[in-house]
């Protein structure tokens, strides 16, 4: 089985759940035939609320609820040149941070940046780093 590609899974065990959780969605894939990375523009629906539990047997707190509070969004069709913006939820609306510009937006803007389900050729913006805050 050496030197052959095969299906694999990666798993980590968590002993202590964090106050801020920042999962990173891998939106790029290396294409061997092109010898470069290409953007994965498919729709990734992420939860606005997240319930996590510890996978360690010697843990103090077994589970924790999280709320999505921010998202980093990549604009563009490939990994370079890149431009990222950040959206932060704040008291019922969203704050859109784009370099030195900050705009107030509707809070639903986070959900709009899941990625497109149908016409992937038009999907140039998609969230790839999510920030969840613990309710505790």
**What is the element string, with H for helices and E for strands?**
EEEEEEEEHE
Structure class? mainly beta
CATH H level: which superfamily? Cysteine proteinases
Name of the top-level CATH class: Alpha Beta
Account of the protein in words:
This protein is an all-beta fold. It has a single domain, classed as Alpha-Beta Complex (Cathepsin B, Chain A), CATH 3.90.70.10. Helix content is 3%, strand content 43%. The chain has one helix at residues 109-112, and strands at residues 20-21, 28-31, 36-39, 49-53, 63-75, 83-90, 93-98, 101-106, 125-134. Strands 1, 4, 5, 6, 7, 8 and 9 form a seven-stranded antiparallel beta sheet that branches. Strands 2-3 form a two-stranded antiparallel sheet. The longest helix is centred in the last third of the chain and has 4 residues, at 109-112. The chain is flat, with a radius of gyration of 18 Å. Mean pLDDT is 77; it is low at 116-123.
């Amino acid at each position: 089985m050496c030197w052959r590609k095969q299906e694999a899974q990666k798993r980590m065990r968590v002993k202590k759940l964090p106050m801020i959780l920042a999962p990173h969605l891998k939106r790029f894939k290396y294409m061997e035939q092109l010898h470069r990375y290409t953007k994965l523009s498919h729709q990734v629906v992420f939860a606005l609320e997240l319930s996590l539990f510890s996978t360690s047997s010697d843990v103090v707190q077994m589970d924790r609820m999280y709320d999505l509070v921010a998202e980093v969004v990549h604009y563009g069709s490939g990994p370079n040149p890149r431009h990222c913006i950040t959206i932060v939820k704040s008291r019922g609306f969203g704050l859109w941070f784009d370099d030195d510009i900050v705009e107030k937006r509707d809070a639903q803007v986070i959900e709009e940046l899941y990625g497109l389900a149908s016409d992937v050729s038009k999907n140039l913006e998609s969230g790839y780093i999510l920030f969840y805050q613990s309710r505790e």
